[in-house]
Amino acid sequence: MEESMCYLRSAPVNVVENSCLTFHFAILSSYSMSVVRVATFNSNSYHTVGQWELQPFNYYISAFVIYVNISSGQYDGILIEVQSYSMINYNEPKAVDNIQLFPGECTTGGM
User: Is 51 in contact with 36 (CB distance < 8 Å)?
Assistant: First the structure.
């Protein structure tokens, strides 16, 4: 089984009120399962605020909108991490874009 990991890490951020983080995630594959995690961190301490196991829908691009609540606070950063597991040696392209932080909590967390 092949495994790959990628991540995006923000600059320090001050979340002044409970907020909703949203972003788009896409993968080009039919051979792998992806795990997407969102965490806040201070120093070397990470706190996972959301995790999803995503299975591609077809043999082409599968796209998801992911949203998760971020509590108010001063963070060294927010981390978006993607880990993929594949049954064959296949390095599938992944994309994260349209990252936004809205004031107020998400109505529900998920995708």
Answer: yes
